[in-house]
Amino acid sequence: MKILVVGLGVIGTTYAYLFEKAGHEVEHFIRESSDKKDIKMLDIDLLDGRTAKQGVMTSDVYDVKHCSQKEYDFIFVSVPSGKIGNVVKSLDDLHIKGTVILACGIWENKESLDALMSGRDYVLGYPVAGGHCTLTHLEACVFDHFMLEKEEKTAIPNYADLERLFLDCRIKLEKPYDMLEWIWLHMAINAAVVSVAGKYGDVSQPSASAEKLMNSSASLKQAVLAIREISAIIAARGVLLKHYRNELLAYRLPTFISVPLMKNMFAKNILTRKIMTLHGNIDDLLFVCQSVYDCGKANHVKAPLFYDSCQSVLSAAK
């Protein structure tokens, strides 16, 4: 299959590398104004969790091929939520066609998202990967699954091809009740964790703050309590939390059970610990916190611990 990946960021490049290794033709759409527009090659250090629970470290070189065609089977988009419209406009202006895989943190509702996508075929996904990318090097980790919208929730004509694409990469697909609601929920969970980590750490040093959080039972307890609060914020958006019991189960256990379990998991699971420390896009993290904070306030949801932590982080970032 022919795959176009928008940009040369962490998520897009990680999956681009896996798609190419699986035998697919992969190219990147990079804006002329980007400082990455002339990149031809990247060194890759990947903690690969597809075949081993703790991950296998591999090193490789990835040849970056730039957009050369007008039609692709899939266009993989992983950008901050506020930039989706700009991506669609760029693709429209250049008459580039293909089914869009939106692997983004999306805070918009379905109607707003449909308007942003401007009539294009698209399917919602959520990556289970993370990392850090420079002009010469990608350091990343990837898990053995990818979250994908159910076929009946989307109208794309090549859903079976998409399933095969991930199967070729030895990546399992997990399909939640409603993909957009699932994304909202996980953005909110991330906001709770980031706000607590930032309050007790240094918001300008997200990796160090994440390490500090994972090593502290007191901070993990605050994170669990904040996650309980933000579940009410998501419910205020009309999400029926009963459809996402598995996602919230660990945070509903008594903290004297959940906190030691989380601390032990972070201590022993290298892959999970790695993904916590590699997400360093501060603007993206702050956007998530602000979005969830504003939503809670607008809906008059009581979440004092989360609001306090979030205010600390947003104030420190100014």
What does the model show?
The chain is α/β, with parallel strands linked by helices and 318 residues long. The protein folds into 2 domains: 2-175, NAD(P)-binding Rossmann-like Domain (Rossmann fold); 181-317, no CATH class. The protein has 12 helices and 11 strands. It has helices at residues 10-21, 84-93, 110-117, 159-168, 179-200, 206-215, 217-235, 245-252, 255-268, 270-278, 282-298, 304-317, and strands at residues 2-6, 25-29, 41-48, 56-63, 71-77, 97-102, 122-126, 129-133, 137-142, 145-148, 172-174. A 7-stranded mixed β-sheet has the order 2-1-5-6-7-10-11, with helices on both faces. A 4-stranded mixed β-sheet has the order 4-3-9-8, sandwiched between helices. Strand 3 (41-48) and strand 4 (56-63) form a beta hairpin. The model has no long low-confidence stretch (mean pLDDT 93).
